[in-house]
Each structure stands twice: as C-alpha cells, then as structure tokens.
Prior knowledge:
Strand content of chain A: 5-15%
Oligomer: homodimer
Number of helices of chain A: 13
Amino acid sequence: MAFTEGSPRVPGVEQITGFGDRLAERVAVRESQLVLGLDPDPARLWPAAIRRAQANGTVAVPPAMRAARAVAAHCALAIEAAGEQCVAVKLQVACFERLGAPGWSVLAETAARAREHGLLVIADAKRGDIGVTAAAYAQAFLDETPTPFGPVPGLGVDALTVNPLLGRDSLEPFTTAARGHGSGLFVLVRTSNPGAAEVQERALADGGSVSGALAALVDEIGFAGTGRSGLSDVGAVVGATAPDRLHALRERMPHAPFLLPGVGAQGGRVEELAPAFMCGPAGGLIAASRGIVAAHEQTGGDPAAAAAREAARIRDLAWRVAA
Amino acid sequence: MAFTEGSPRVPGVEQITGFGDRLAERVAVRESQLVLGLDPDPARLWPAAIRRAQANGTVAVPPAMRAARAVAAHCALAIEAAGEQCVAVKLQVACFERLGAPGWSVLAETAARAREHGLLVIADAKRGDIGVTAAAYAQAFLDETPTPFGPVPGLGVDALTVNPLLGRDSLEPFTTAARGHGSGLFVLVRTSNPGAAEVQERALADGGSVSGALAALVDEIGFAGTGRSGLSDVGAVVGATAPDRLHALRERMPHAPFLLPGVGAQGGRVEELAPAFMCGPAGGLIAASRGIVAAHEQTGGDPAAAAAREAARIRDLAWRVAA
C-alpha cells in the first residue's frame, strides 16, 4: 500500500495514491523505465546461485526445495547486480509455480527482496477468470483472503498482468482490489509472441481488430483510475515485437502505462518504442529478462557484471528514446 | 500417466492411451459425466472441515496453514460425499493459490485424494502465455521440471484449462506436454460468465465470431490427438449458460470433449446441453461446484448428505440427456 507523501490530507484519513501517479514518480526519481524480468529456469541459473544453494543444502533435502533455494539465490543476485538500473521487477509466476509450494514461498521472498531495493513488483501471471474466481486471484496477488483463522495476506504486488478474454466483468474484481491498495493492472492487449496476431489481430466486422477492442476496454476501465500524472492504474501489455501497432494503440489508450516485453531475446528494439512515451517518461516500461540475466552468454565473463552492463545500456537507451 | 490395459503392445514399449480415449472409457465405466468442482472459499467451508482443522491445529499455527488444513479437510469430505457420483474433480487453482505455499501443497494433496477415489483430475487454471512460459506452466501442471538437483514433479493432472488469447504457438507446449502423458487440455472457447460475449462473441470481418475462430483452432490442434473413441485430447470450455451457442460449437469441434461449467449457481440447465453429447456420452463433462458443495444452503441438513443427493440428481439427469 502506498500513501501520498506530499499532498494535503484529511486528518485521520490516509489517501491512497493511485498506481499511475506512483509509477510516474518512481520513474522520475530513478530515471529508469527498465523492468528486470525474472523468469528463472533451474537449468540456467547463475553458477553462484547453485553454489549458494549447495552450501546451504544437503542431499536429504528434496529437489524442489533445493531448486527453490537456488532460484531464490539467483533472483537475489540478479536484483543486486541490475536492480539499481531498474524501476521494477517483473516476476514470471510460472517459473516459481513449477517448483510447487517451495516455489511459491520463493516468489514471495523475491518480491520482498525487490522491495528492499526500492523496486516496484509486477507479477506476470496473466490471470483471467469469471468474477468469483477473478476475486480469488485478486486476493492471492493484490489483497488478502478472509478466513475463520484470520486474514491470509496475498503477495501484495504493485501490479499484476491479466488476460481480458473473459470480458469486462472478469476484470472488475482485479480493478477493485488494485485500486484499494494503490496497485495497478497490465491487461494483455497485443502480446510479444510470434503467433500473437492469430487471435489478437483478427479483423472485426465493425472495424479494427481484437487488440483494438481490448485497447478500448482498457481505456474505458482505466478512466476512473487516471491520476494527476495523466497515467491510469490500468495499463496494457504491448509487445515490443510489434512496433508498427504501437502508435495506434497509444492513441486508443492515451492514459495507459504500457508494459513492453520482448526486447532482446525476442527481437524487440528499444529505438522503436517512442510512441509508448507520448504520455510521458513513465508511459512505457521496458521489460527485459533473458537479455539482462543471460547477457554473459553473449558477452562472456561474470554474469553479474554482464547483467549490470546490459541493464545500464538498455536503461540509458530507453531514457533517451523517451526524452 | 496412463497406459492401455487391453490393447496390443509392442514388447518393452508402453503405449500411452490418449486423453480422449481415457475419458470415454472412464465415463462409460462410472456412468457419469459429472465433474465435482472444488473452489473452496475459506469463509464458507463445511463446519466439519473447520472442526477437523481446529482439532489438529493450535493458535500458534499461522492463519494460512490453518486455513489450508481446513480447505484440505473440506475437499476431502466433499470428495468422500459426492465423488462416487462423479467421473472427475475440477480444482479451481485460484482458491488454493490465495493461501500461498500451504495452499499449493493442499492443491497437490487434493489431487492425490481425488485419484484415490478413481476420479480424473482437471486443474482449472486458465493459463496462457508465450511459448517459453507456457512450457513452464506445462511443467507445473502436466510434466516435471529438470533441475541440477533432480527433476521436480508437477501436479500431474489429467487435464488443464488453458486460455488461447495468445494464439496457437502459446498452446503448443501444453499440447506436447499433455500428449506425452495421456493428459488433455480444455481450451477456453465460450466461457460461462455474464460478460463472456463482450470479447468472445465479437463478430469477425470474415464471418463468425471470436469464439468461432477459437473453436476452429481447437479442432485443428486437436486433430492429431483424436483417439479410437472419436474424442480428442484437446477439449473446449463451453459455458452451460450459453446453450444457444452449443450446437454450432459442437459442429465446429466434432471431436472435442466439452467442459461445461455454469450449471446451478450460474444458471445453466442440464436439459439444454444435449448438443454436447452428439459425439458420445463423454462429449460433455458437466462441472458443478457450488451447486453440489453448497447444496445444503438451499435444502438445509447435513452438507455431505445434501451434496451426495444433488450430485446423484445431476448425474442421473445428465446421463438421460446424453442417452
């Protein structure tokens, strides 16, 4: 939860600053639009992380717990190396979930670690379900779950990616939960994968495309959450791999922060992302995962040093493109 | 993993029976198309489950662990009460995930409990992501994750619900993993929520609707996984709340088993689901959650007895509709 620091307050009433304004402030302070994507593959962890996990563990510990400890160490090392260049981390939930319960614990631990480094935490979970189930996912990621034994806190992330295929009523529980905590959403509009166009760019009978209709939906539900910065708490995932769509989507969603995955390994180029920044320097968040964490596979040398260098390079480039 | 019992085998080579054939056989043996939906809300658990959790726990145990124990007891009691009437359980992953790591443990425990009762296990997770991440989710639910410390087994469910908004390449890792284990997928085509039409029934420029295009995709990727029963390992989620769409979707997907949520609390009626069964008695799986588990809220009396009665009623009705 975030409360306004400098704005006038009603005594006794804490005012929640919306995610759009929080994001704008954080980007300005850190002079960075870079998001460190953490999608740890246990088969490709930094050697130092394996060593750390091996030092702590014994053979009697089950593989899931040892792998989870190694993933935790890997993420901690990556945050220490590259976090300073970034404004946020994006945690790929699938990569933690595949380690079961120990993986879920490490997801929470990694979110806490990122916060200690002053980073916003984005859970890349792409959840989407009917209302009552969407509300359960919102409790898991953005809120808490009431139980007869006391409330169970959720992950408490600053933003969550969601899938809008089920329509507006499936997004409402997420919007409500996010707004209550000064958190935000990034709704899938145009993803970064090679086959994204198959469904998302289908032409509609009344003009435009599926992704255009999703953009209109994002703009509509984000309206009530638009802050003084001009940024809303409902953003959009727009792949950096489809720069030709970026300008039209920005016009359709003038207040939505864009989460732009696909730079680096997937082929997206920062230089082509300028339309995202038409609404200010926080209008686009550039998510790079393997491009940073696996930079040493291209350059050789120490993984941490290579990650720090590559993060600094993308950050500087983005800051210039956004200027 | 399931291996053919009665079919000819190449010596030393175990042949995997596809999910469509396994489903057809299981429906025939159990004479049921009913799926027990488990979406446990910690605030609405059966009193006996709370008592069981309280008997085992102490105040020093954190709320998440106590709630998870109560959820486990609730699911076990529901399976004991109504499982005999059913062919499968559908575990709503959100409801476990909101309890964090202890919730994930109980998800695995509940899946094992259902298997002990001879039930197929469907994870209702509605995952969908770019290829590399879809592969990670496939490891979590259908396969295992290789790590330097040994493989970490996934949940090993018989079927998983997936979201196709990202297109064909996002579904491939799921299909591959499922086929390798005789498991199946249920792809969202037309969901049961009130606002489902907003995106899914948008008219396309080249005719039909988004859900029609998704149905064509399901039919295409399911082709290679169609068994002797005529059922494929790639099914579709089609809400029981849109019976007017059912006939057209069945024609578009003649081999797909349909998972039909929305009966009961959401307003769907079993009597209107006949088109699902045009390809045989296993062509439609009727998922009922609150309708069974919360039946006592309508009828009064013991939750277990009310659940057993309501499950038997829906099962008999469905078997007649399918005949």
